Amino acid sequence: MDIVKTRFDVEAFLRDYWQRKPLLIRNPWAQWTNPLEPDELAGLACEDGVESRLVIQPGHGDWLVEQGPMAETRFSTLGGSPWTLLVQAVDHHVPDVAALLDPFRFVPNWRIDDVMVSYAADGGGVGPHFDQYDVFLIQGLGKRRWRIGGHCDEGSERLPHDDLRLLAHFDATDEWVLEPGDILYVPPGIAHDGVAVDDDCMTYSIGFRAPSRSELIAHWSDHLLDGLQEDDRYEDPGLSVQDNAGEISEDAIARLHAMISTAMLDRDAFARWFGQYNSTPKYAEADCRPEEPISSDEIGAALSEGTALLRNPASRFSFIKKTDALTLLFADGECFECTGPGIAFAETLCAQDSFVADQKLAQSDAGIALIEALFNQGSVMFDAED
Ligand code: SIN
Ligand code: CO
């Protein structure tokens, strides 16, 4: 599904709205079709390994939250209170929902988190809140009234609740009713509240991610610590006598500081680590490896026959161009050094979710070994229909 570019100017959006202010985009699709039935969403919420929540408003300002997987009978026993079901990462399970990401690829893939899908009965919603991330809220089915408020931060007062981060105060500055195909962009930190108008309200949240500084420092430091030895220590050969033995000299501080900064500021090592860290799958426990590992002969045969490769929709891919002759491919937390025909392969793999690999790659041992590794870790598969 394409967003009609004439009605949605990507350059203007990135310049004026992205990370800055909310934008309502009235049905920009050539033709909007809701990609998932409510029943299918309910079915997913009952599956193990799928993250879902049910938010119910029984009245008197109460908010109840139940975590999935849901019992199949749960939806018929909900009664008349407003409720909403939210299912994370539906793009990992439903190709037509994954396709909703395509028009938003003007933002780099490494910033994409997932597509969360909600279904709400009349009056249902998750309450006024703000998110840490950018989100495009696509109205899939039915109608939802969105109210937008001001900027919030960690200091904004919240209502006490174990599972919901509801704002204690919410003053709407804008209000719109979204109909199927309409999109609301909400930048991080902007208060918003969506309430279903009538039953059968489905909203698709194209969610992004942005690492926090503390997360980056903590994980990068952990990675560095893993590679450090106890005998890697402060050294001061040629020590000169100080006037006052009580002083920590400038020279000592310079050496100590260098011990930290040379490792922390190693940009190449950081880039390689970040690529791996950022491509770690959203659900580490989901094991997508094939039951039987594939052999290099089987890979070679499938490639020679021109069988298309498919990306696992739950996998994360990105690449970094190191030099003209070396590209680092990251897939599901692993780093692959790609040279020769592997470079074009890596870049195509990061740009397209299905394609036929070049025959040059099929004829190279390194190319076959690369695909074998990707296949056996569950990041790619061959198209069974070919
Ligand atoms: C929803 O779909 O009801 C909630 C989405 C959001 O507010 O981020
Ligand atoms: Co939100």
Give an overview in words:
With 386 residues, the chain is of the alpha+beta class. The chain has two domains: 2-208, Jelly Rolls (Sandwich), CATH 2.60.120; 296-382, 50S ribosomal protein L16 arginine hydroxylase, Chain A, Domain 2 (Malonyl-Coenzyme A Acyl Carrier Protein, domain 2, 3-Layer(aba) Sandwich), CATH 3.40.366. It contains ten helices and 15 strands. The protein has helices at residues 10-16, 38-45, 95-98, 213-226, 250-264, 267-278, 296-304, 341-351, 359-362, 365-376, and strands spanning 23-25, 52-59, 62-67, 83-87, 112-120, 135-151, 174-178, 183-186, 190-208, 309-311, 317-323, 326-331, 334-338, 354-355, 380-382. Strands 1, 2, 3, 4, 5, 6, 7, 8 and 9 form a nine-stranded antiparallel beta sheet that branches. Strand 2 and strand 3 (62-67) form a beta hairpin. The longest helix has 15 residues, at 250-264. The radius of gyration is 25 Å and the shape is globular. The model has no long low-confidence stretch (mean pLDDT 96). Succinic acid (SIN) binds at residues 84, 118, 125-126, 131, 135, 137, 192, 194, 203, 205. Succinic acid binds at residues 84, 118, 125-126, 131, 135, 137, 192, 194, 203, 205.
Secondary structure blueprint with pairings:
Elements: H1 10-16, E1 23-25, H2 38-45, E2 52-59, E3 62-67, E4 83-87, H3 95-98, E5 112-120, E6 135-151, E7 174-178, E8 183-186, E9 190-208, H4 213-226, H5 250-264, H6 267-278, H7 296-304, E10 309-311, E11 317-323, E12 326-331, E13 334-338, H8 341-351, E14 354-355, H9 359-362, H10 365-376, E15 380-382
Antiparallel strand pairs: 1-8, 2-3, 2-4, 4-5, 5-9, 6-7, 6-8, 6-9, 10-14, 10-15, 11-12, 12-13
The site of cobalt (II) ion (CO) has 4 residues, from loops.
